[in-house]
User: Which sequence fits this backbone?
């Protein structure tokens, strides 16, 4: 079965993407960083682009966005 993945965050660097992955994983949401290899080997390539993408299954997108907002300190803290 093919699962549609959607980008839920564009991160400044691989460290931020991995930190958000940990936050999602802790809440049972699997995520994927399609840019991980390049962002690790050549981070300068992402400095002027849209950032390192963090993706989740389409069904988890809304929950993931809320978790990411809280992790970044931009969401509802309640």
Assistant:
């Amino acid at each position: 079965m093919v699962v549609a993945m959607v980008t839920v965050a564009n991160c400044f660097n691989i460290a931020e993407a991995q930190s958000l992955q940990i936050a999602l994983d802790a809440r049972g949401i699997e995520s994927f960083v399609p840019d991980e290899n390049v962002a690790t080997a050549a981070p300068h390539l992402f400095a002027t682009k849209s950032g390192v993408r963090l993706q989740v299954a389409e069904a988890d997108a809304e929950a993931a966005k809320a978790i990411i907002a809280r992790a970044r300190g931009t969401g509802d803290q309640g």
